[in-house]
Amino acid sequence: MNELLPWLASTFADLQQRRAQGRLAHALLLTGPAGVGKYQLAELFAQSLLCAEPQADGQPCGQCHSCSLYTAETHPDLYRLRPEEDSRVIRIDQIRALIQGMSLSSHYGRHKVVILNPADAMNMAAANALLKTLEEPPADTVLLLITDRPSFLPATIRSRCQTLRLALPARDEAQAWLVAQLANPQEAAVLLALAGGAPLAARDLADEQLARRQELLRGWQQLASGKADPVKLAAEWVKPTLQLPITWIYGWVADMIRLRSGGDGGLTNEDAVVTLQNLAQELDLTRLYGLLDRVLEAIKLANSQVNPQTLMEGILLYWSNLPRNTMTGQAKQQ
Ligand SMILES: [Zn+2]
Question: Model pTM greater than 0.90?
């Protein structure tokens, strides 16, 4: 399902207006930073061009025969060109096959749409082959070229396209959207900063970081039972930045406090309830609050000149040295 990303809504509306007025360029070059949503916009616009009954705002209906074909990725009037497997290059034979396909008339009497992503992956021969099509495009054809790096495209290609530069949303807008996408919404600000403000890149980063978060939680457990060295772990955890790990630690500690207080609702780490419950029940609530204060202090200092490793060591040493109620631990083992 294609989603109209809120910060691209005005660009989409503008495209629809041009289309309604018959001013749509036959070749559009979508540029802008990685993770802004260029490909998503191209896909949504392509579907809307193919849809038999688009909605009033131009968005595809999602119901018609064309939309079904689109969703099944079998629409005969939609061509997606990308580097083939094991290759980083879009080659001339792919462009030739495309040109041959485009020379046929549209199967459904509407547009034929080409999505070329990333357009800068075309080698010189491929770009030259496409040039002729850009100069004399077949009727009702719309080519959508996508790139983060327009300067890597030959000037001859760029000059034959209408450039549409997509801008990153304001931070508040990006964060509001990201919060709704994440399993752990409190990571939104950090992920967005790490992704340079690009919301989709931030969402991808959250997926990539999932395994690491689990690995760090294992380390956190080992520290509690004296099976890991806090100084050694701290050195690993601050690479490449301590921002995410410290956000995770904050989430674990806040959840341990909720669990120790007898609550189980509103947890950040639903996937780690048992682990956190076991860790929390060995500790006094007061000590957990003391730990939370330290973590908050470190988060505040994280953007200052203080050495990140010193900050992380402080937290991990404090955590591993907390007096634990081993009776509870023994009772659990029996
Ligand atoms: Zn439709």
Answer: no
Query: Measured in angstroms, how far is the CA atom of residue 21 from the centroid of ligand 1?
Result: 20
Q: Is the C-alpha dihedral spanning 317, 319, 322, 327 positive or negative?
A: negative
Distance between CA atoms of 211 and 280, rounded to whole angstroms?
23
Q: Position of tokens 């983060």?
A: 148
For ligand 1, the distance from its centroid to the CA atom of residue 49, given in whole angstroms, is: 9
Spacing, Cα 137 to ligand 1 middle (Å):
25
Alpha carbon of 117 to ligand 1 centroid (Å): 23
Per-residue pLDDT tens over the stretch 279-329: 999 999 999 999 999 999 998 888 788 899 999 999 999 999 999 986 544
Task: Please give the sequence-ordered ranges of beta strands (E in DSSP) within 147-242, or none if there are none.
Answer: 162-165
| 8 Å CB contact between 120 and 38 | no
Task: Please state, in angstroms and rounded to a whole number, the distance separating the CA atoms of residues 189 and 198.
Answer: 11
Ligand 1 centroid to residue 22 C-alpha, Å: 20
Residues 145-185 have pLDDT tens digits of 999 999 999 999 999 999 999 999 999 999 999 999 998 88
For 113-144, what is each residue's pLDDT tens digit? 999 999 999 999 999 999 989 998 888 899 99
